[in-house]
Design a protein that fits this description.
Layout lengths: L6 H15 L10 E5 L6 H12 L2 E6 L10 H20 L3 E6 L1 H5 L10 H15 L20 E5 L15 E5 L4 H11 L7 H10 L5 H11 L1 H11 L4 H5 L16 H21 L1 H9 L12 E7 L5 E5 L14 H12 L3 E7 L1 H4 L5 E2 L8 H14 L4 E8 L4 E9 L6
Parallel strand pairs: 1-4, 1-5, 2-3, 3-4
Antiparallel strand pairs: 6-7, 8-9, 8-10, 10-11
Helix pairs in contact: 1-2, 3-5, 6-7, 6-8, 8-11
């Protein structure tokens, strides 16, 4: 199967790797190439194709290896793999790279629910140190004065804003946002369906029909076409005997004839997959759960300018006295007008709010902790929660955080209280 390599992607990979193996006097070359973009666009697979075409050998680290019960293990792993890759390049006499997949998943901080551990700090610090001194990478407890051969590092991820900012600065990491164009998608999808006899025009029509889908969607679509034959095979064998027939069977592995890869069938199956995606997006079960549990972390304020009484009226209902300001946004005498306006503007943009605190000692390391168990999307709730946090953490730093619920990222961070200062 001839897979398609996007020319722009191949060019970026080739330039970065080659540049790191050249001696360019007076030029500081970033050691790390960060490839980021939305999920499912084939960042890792395109890297593998580029490495294969260039004859580059790869040492892999998964984002899941960047955490451990033992503090310091992930940082030591990165140093060890880097030294191994450097030695491999020296012994083999060819280009080698160290690749870390899903770096943001292992070392990123997405929201207040992501614990910022010692290992996370050490991983960031280790990558920064290697980027600054690529020929002097030592293992803990030992020192070797022999300079290493410099080898480039390539990392992939979805959202690099979750990473430690000094790590991704220019000079250490060169950033490359991968978003395949229509021509790239047509080429990649054509490679996926190359054995199935789809014409160039049919591939283009398939891509245009599902223009908003990622590359992984089309790969999953091809796999789904075989479901009908596999389902029929299971029914023919029987659910009770399928395990014996498939695993270690003396009859050998089952053979399937080529399924129907007509454009109409692909589009029909694709629409079924899109419908399943929408069911997941529309369920919002987590939001519903958070709304049910929202009141457990703080006491919500009563509606503004409303004074309930316990005196029943003539028709049996309780009297409620309302002023002309009953429909205005909630306000607080304990918060400055500037802070209240900040809250109003954040919510008006469709963002949710969280509140974080930290003492003076931890402020220098950025180890903020959340005051709440969930995000807030109501003005009165935000005022009430902020007042509670100001009272509970009066001697600490407090900051207001605006979060984009769709992109799952922070958009605003504002300190609203300092120790022994005004709020």
């Amino acid at each position: 199967m001839g897979y398609y390599i996007a020319p722009r992607f191949l060019d970026k990979i080739a330039v970065h790797i080659t540049k790191n193996f050249l001696n360019l006097p007076g030029i500081r070359v970033p050691l790390i190439l960060g490839i980021h973009g939305r999920k499912g666009e084939g960042k890792t697979f395109q890297c593998e194709l580029a490495f294969e075409k260039m004859g580059v050998e790869v040492t892999l680290i998964s984002g899941g290896e960047l955490e451990s019960p033992d503090a310091g293990d992930p940082a030591r792993l990165i140093r060890l793999r880097y030294r191994e890759t450097s030695e491999l390049s020296k012994v083999r006499g060819k280009m080698c790279v160290l690749m870390i997949n899903d770096l943001d998943a292992g070392a990123g901080r997405f929201d207040e629910g992501t614990q910022y551990t010692v290992n996370t700090q050490l991983v960031n610090a280790t990558l920064m140190n290697i980027a600054d001194n690529p020929t002097d990478v030592q293992l803990p407890g030992s020192y070797d004065s022999t300079p290493l051969r410099r080898v480039p590092i390539i990392v992939t991820g979805n959202d690099f804003t979750t990473l430690y900012a000094p790590l991704i600065r220019d000079g250490r990491m060169e950033k490359f946002y991968w978003e395949p164009s229509r021509d790239d998608k047509v080429g990649i999808v054509g490679g996926i369906f190359a054995p199935d006899g789809l014409s160039q025009k049919e591939v283009e029509q398939l891509v245009d029909t599902f223009a908003n889908q990622s590359i992984d969607f089309f790969s999953a679509l091809r796999s789904r076409i075989y479901d009908e034959q596999i389902r029929q095979f299971i029914h023919d064998i029987g659910f009770e005997r399928i395990s014996l027939r498939v695993v270690n069977s003396i009859e050998g592995p089952p053979a399937f004839k080529k399924p129907d890869f007509s454009l109409a069938h692909l589009i029909e199956s694709g629409h079924l997959m899109v419908a399943e995606q929408k069911r997941v997006e529309n369920s919002q079960l987590v939001d519903e759960y958070n709304r049910l549990n929202r009141g457990r972390s703080y006491q919500a304020a009563p509606p503004p300018n409303v004074t309930p009484t316990s005196q029943p009226s003539s028709d049996g209902e309780k009297q409620v006295a309302k002023t002309n300001g009953a429909n205005k946004p909630a306000s607080s005498p304990h918060l400055t007008l500037e802070t209240q306006e900040q809250i109003r503007q954040i919510l008006a943009q469709g963002y949710t709010i969280n509140i974080e605190h930290v003492d003076e000692r931890r402020f220098r390391t950025g180890s903020w902790q959340s005051c709440l168990n969930t995000h807030i999307d109501a003005h009165s709730d935000a005022i009430s929660a902020l007042e509670s946090c100001l009272e509970e953490y009066s001697g600490e730093y407090l900051r207001l955080v605006g979060i984009d619920p769709k992109a799952k990222r922070r958009v605003i961070e504002t300190i609203i209280q300092r120790p022994n200062g005004k709020n």
